[in-house]
Amino acid sequence: MYKILAKEDLTSDIHLFKVEAPAIARKAQAGQFVIVRSGEEGERIPLTIAGWDKEEGSVTIVFMEVGATTRKLALLNSGDSILNFVGPLGRPTEIEKFGTVVCVAGGFAIATIVPIARAMREAGNKVISIMGFRTRELVFWEERLGSVSDELIVTTDDGSYKRKGLVTEPLKELLQEAEVARVIAIGPTVMMKFCSLTTKPFGVKTIVSLNPIMVDGTGMCGCCRVSVGDETKFACVDGPDFDAHEVDWDLLMNRQRTYLDEEREALRLWETSTTRF
Amino acid sequence: MAEKKKINLNRVPIPKQSPEMRRKNFSEVALGYTGEQAIEEANRCLQCKKPSCKDGCPVNVDIPEFIKAICDHDMPEAVRILKGKNSLPGICGRVCPQETQCEMRCNLAKKGAPIAIGRLERYVADWERAHPEISEKQGEHIKSNGKKVAIVGSGPAGLTCAADLAKRGYEVTIFEALHVAGGVLMYGIPEFRLPKQVVQGEVDYVKSLGVEIKLDQIIGKIATVDEFLENGYAAIFLAPGAGAPMFLNIPGENLSDIYSANEFLTRTNLMKAYLFPEYDTPIKVGKRIAVFGGGNVAMDASRCALRLGAEEVYIIYRRSKVEMPARLEERENTEEEGVIFKLLTNPRKFIGDEQGRVKAVECYEMELGEPDESGRRRPIPKPGTEFIIDIDAAIIALGTQPNPIIPSTTKGLELTRWGTVKTDEATGRTSKDRVWCGGDMATGAATVISAMGAGKRAATDIDAYLQGKSELP
Questions:
Q1: What pTM was computed for the model?
Q2: Between chains, do B263 and A222 touch, taking CB under 8 Å as contact?
Q3: By the CB < 8 Å criterion, does B374 face chain A?
Q4: Do B148-243+402-466 and B19-138 have the same topology in CATH?
């Protein structure tokens, strides 16, 4: 059992848990993930590590409520425990001095790009971050990402806060104006795909953190297989970071939809069971 | 001396659920002997002066001795003898390929009716589980020798090695990657062949010897082998089990609803997807499903698919029935349940619908040519025989390759060209000091009992080494 030391609601449906996991905290690096299972009947889901504290022995995860599993997880509070918490898994993000690095994040992935931006900056890069949200109410961690970036651009789809539009627009401008050595894009698959399409004509190496469905998370089951450069890779052990320009995005999105019917059914059952109270 | 025993060639059959019944449930297929049946079968044993059955057992169970105890109605003695050599008898009695091991060497095998050693072993183990009051509290008698051993993986190799070392006084900690102990016995072999309660009982027995099992520990990630060696562990036994599943490498293989057998069985057995939505993990079988491969895992996957509600289940295998690596008993059980065998058939490509889900597989026929390196006749494609089978899902059961996490994070661990850890078969020693290896990580995909044998040999060698009885070269 892994105790939740602190919980923070970043928006109404994005939550942060600081979890007691000293052995994982000692080894965690930016870009790695953990597998979480919240109860006896629960499924195993991968969540990217958003932070860690070796002294405190804690690992921070941030997740969004999307289906029954994440809704159940969101019911846990500080002082409660998570049944299984496994990691640190996957290869860490490649951190080197590249020059200017643009870090792009959308939605709850803002949390996971913070340690990457920090590590990039500590390695001597100039870090420009772009964070995108649907609307003003969903904005979080503007200051925190700002504090580890040399420049920060905030967009909202509806223009209710800062710049109106999608993250790909300022990304394109930066590529046109500046010498960008590398782009890191993390967020919903469709966002990562469009960031990839944006950077490709400029020939700027772009790294994405893929989020296919996983079961064991250790290379044993092959559920998370993705096609990168026409080769089948397992996101859990070969990734989760891959060269965006080599990723077969349509395949990834199709495979992510494998259990859409079952996910809807589980959510419906969950909602009917919870509205009784 | 007793007069020479009369030979009885009537092997007592084991009661089973009928095929019509069992294909709809996950309960155990073989129901086990009653006391009377066990004694009847045990009485057939000739109690040979030079029993060759023992030589066929990778863990050298004292077979005639425990059978004698059954004949004498002394079940506690039968348990004691059996467990003296085998810590996991309920598992072995169910999943060992006795027909190629102990039973093959039985003197009655020549007459076509070897003693049903596996069924008797299972009977003794089940009797013990039903009589917990007689099981000794083993751990209380063991005095610690103060030496710590780490074992990576709680599958058959790890559990066996742990039990043998604990009995010798070592302080053993097992590090398990998944959220339950048992490895392939839990995630791989289905409930209807090996009830999880039986596995849990034998895991609990190993714990009762004083072995600690830590779950959720991916060695190579959370801690490395070298860190263990630096931090107080005198020896390490690596038994992390099957690695990455192999695929066919044909077009369309990544379409949705195409599973590796590992994934399909893990969802079913470990995550209990057959109880969705009560359990959160889903699985898809559809109406028609094809399983590729001819081993025990292919049989297990096809039979799970039936029980999950598939109407037509195909096993597609490129050679003929006699070349199938699956146990005869499992193949027969599978056929009886109505799985359709498409033999001498090979897939060329998977065909998907507009949502990227598999909807068909294109296959072609094969014929058998001259024997290849494996001694089996080589399958050769027959041109112009392409045909299409409509399917809703597929399972690829072709075996596994070693998992890279431990080799890539351990200094000085030599590998073979297949990526397995280079290991001395007799002792389990690797190229690295104080590190032993066994099970699939050392041999590639193999059986539960061969992994147990490796665990046992490694325990003996680790003990000899740590007692200073032998030195590493």
A1: 0.92
A2: yes
A3: no
A4: no
